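Residues pack. Consider this:
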Amino acid sequence: MMEVKIEKLQMQNLDEFWQVFAQILKADFPGYSKSVVDYFLTRMYLKDNFDHWLKTDWKVILIAKNTKTEVKIIGFAVLDKPYGGVCFCRWLGVLPELRKNGIGRRLIEEWISYAKNCGCDKVEIASQPNAKKFYEKCGLNLEGKRNLSYFGIDQFIFGKVIGEPRDEVMVSE
């Protein structure tokens, strides 16, 4: 039986996280061409960038860990620093062989909990078409579609209102 724990990524787990991130990005984002994925992994989402983002609190990375196996990190949610009352999830992924076990849903629940604790009034994510049904099942609302958006893919925008907008949250750093 798999035992899953969701927690914030700590620096000592950065190497393992980045390997899982790269593996999932290469295998599970079919809208992106190989050259775009290579660009992400060699220019935008380098391990050094995650190191910097963690040290500066620019991003929060939630990880799903299987506490009963050697491969500990089995999924993740990469969250942008809340801005204007919204917490945006930049990336969400679970190892393919472990999907349909509620891990992605648990990552989303923890993301929403984190956003509420930060005082956010909303969460948002941009999805590739193949993940649309998953986000709907998780209770996120389809808010629109970006045709041929960033990096040439169609994106579905999902969101969920989780509180009332408050000026002190929207203007805080």
